[in-house]
Amino acid sequence: MATSQHPREPSSPPPQPEASESPLLAAKGVNVVYEPARGVRIWSVRDVNVTLRPGEFVGLVGESGCGKSTLGFALTRMLRPPARLRSGEIFFDGKDISLLDGEDLRRQRRGGFALVLQSGMNTLNPVRTVAHHFGDILKAHKVEGEHWGQAEIRNRGTELLDKVQLDASLLDRYPHELSGGMRQRVSIALALSLQPRMIIFDEPTTALDVIAQKAVMQTIKDLQREDGFTAILISHDLGVVLEATDRVMVMYAGEIVEDQPSRSLVGGAHHPYTEALLRCYADPRAEEIHLGGIPGTPPDLSLSLAGCPFTPRCPLAEDICRLKDPPLAALGNGLAACHVRARKDSAPVDGGVPATVRQPTAQTSADAEAPPTPSRQVLADADGTEVRDVH
C-alpha cells in the first residue's frame, strides 16, 4: 500500500452542527452476530455506540471485514439472516427502532432513514425499468390520501433524477443499459424518494472508475449540503472520507476505536491503528510517497477477545492492553480507545466498559451463546424474531 507523510486535509467541509442539538441517531451497545446454520458464530459488531446529530456528515473507515457494512445494515434495520442484532438500542428521532418490525418499521423508514448499497447492478432489479423502481418504492411507502399513478411516478422520478444530474429519458432504461456511475446515481435518487433525514452510503464508489468515483462523491456532497440530511459514508478509502466528512469514526475488529473531527485526524490521530491507516494513505500531491502497510492480521471474530483487539499489531502495546479492553475516552478533539494514549488525560464515555470475558481461546459451548460484551436487551430482530440475552 502507498503511504504519504503529508495526507491532504479535507477541503471546505459543511459547517458542523451545534453540540447542543439533540441526536438524530443514538445507538448504544450494538452487538451483531452472524449465525450460519453450520459453522461458527462471527461477532461482527461488538458493543458499538454511535451518535449522529442533524446535518452531520460522518465517515466510517476500517479494513475490509471489520464490520463497517454490517453496522450500517444494523443502524437501518436491514440485517437479514444469518446476521442477527444480538443486543443494543438504536434510537432514531427518539424512538427505539430496534424494537420495531412490520408496518411500524415501514412507517419509520418514510422520512426517516435509507441505505445506499455499494453496487447499483446488485441493488437494482435487472428486469425492471428505472421508472418501475421509483413506482415500487413510492407505492410501498405511500400514506393515506396519496395516489401514485404512472404520471405521478414519472413526475417524481424526473425530479429525483434531476437532483442527481441524470436525464428523465433514463426512466425507461433498464439497469444493464446504464453505466456504473449512472446506476449508482439512480440508487441515490431512489434513496431520496422518501425524503429521509439520514442516509447511509455503503462504499458508494466501489467498482467505479476514477472519473465516475469523483462525480458520484461530488453528487453526494452537493445533495448533503443542499438537503441537510445526516449522512454516514462507509469506505475503506480514507482520502475520500477525509475530504467529504465532518468527522471520522475508525472501526477495527467490530469496535469503534477512534472518533475525531476530520480536520483533526490528519496529524492528530490518537489510536495507533488510525495512525497506521494514515501511513497507508497516499497524497497524490506529495513530492515523496512511501509504500507501507500494517504488519499482522486482524483477530478472528469467531473467538472471544481479551484486551484491546489491536494489541498483537500495535507498536505501543503494554501488559494492560493484553488484559483489559480500553474504554473510549476523550482525547484531543474527539474520542479514542487506547490505554497508552489515555494514561495522562482520559474521560471515559458512557458505554466504554472494559470487557470482562474476552479471552482469545477457541469458542466453547458457553461462548457460543454469549455475546462478547455485556447486554441486557430483549430485541425484535430484523426478521421479527425475539432475541433474549441470557445475561
TrEMBL record:
Molecular-function GO term, any one: ATP hydrolysis activity
Family matches, as PROSITE patterns: ABC_TRANSPORTER_1, ABC_TRANSPORTER_2
Keyword Transport: yes
UniProt KW Ubl conjugation keyword: no
Example GO BP: peptide transport
Keywords, ordered alphabetically: ATP-binding, Nucleotide-binding, Transport
InterPro entries in the record: AAA+_ATPase (IPR003593), ABC_transporter-like_ATP-bd (IPR003439), ABC_transporter-like_CS (IPR017871), Oligopep_ABC_C (IPR013563), P-loop_NTPase (IPR027417)
Annotated region described as Disordered, given as residue ranges: 1-21, 346-391
Residues in ABC transporter domain copies: 27-278
NCBIfam families xrefs: oligo_HPY
Protein name as it appears in the record: Dipeptide/oligopeptide/nickel ABC transporter ATP-binding protein
Lineage: Bacteria, Bacillati, Actinomycetota, Actinomycetes, Micromonosporales
